[in-house]
Amino acid sequence: MTEPDPIKSEQQPVALYVFLDLAERVVMGKSKYKTILTTDNGRRPLNDAYEEALDMCMYLRQEILEREKTPRFDLEILRRMRDFLQEIIYSEPKVPGPDGNLIRSLKDHIIYLQDTADETLALLIAHAPNL
Description:
mainly alpha; 2 domains
């Protein structure tokens, strides 16, 4: 997915549209939450932003797949992900947390992801003739 350097263009300025989008978001937020976004509002903005970024990745991948018209999905991707997660789960952590809890929590999340990947892989294999 390598893209060439952009060329100079006299087309629409993206920054202006982003600015207008931001202004619309402020108005929408004020209407929905009865306040504008401020600091120290009781939320964790890094978590909010991270979750929004994950959503963005999903939407971007959806658009890429829809433009391709023929998804390049390969069951091998899930198999490799499962193997990678197993390798992490069963390897000894190189830098344990002070009390080990961080590593244990990370491993719990990875085990959950592995289980999810295994379930997804089983579903995909069951429906492989339809792919």
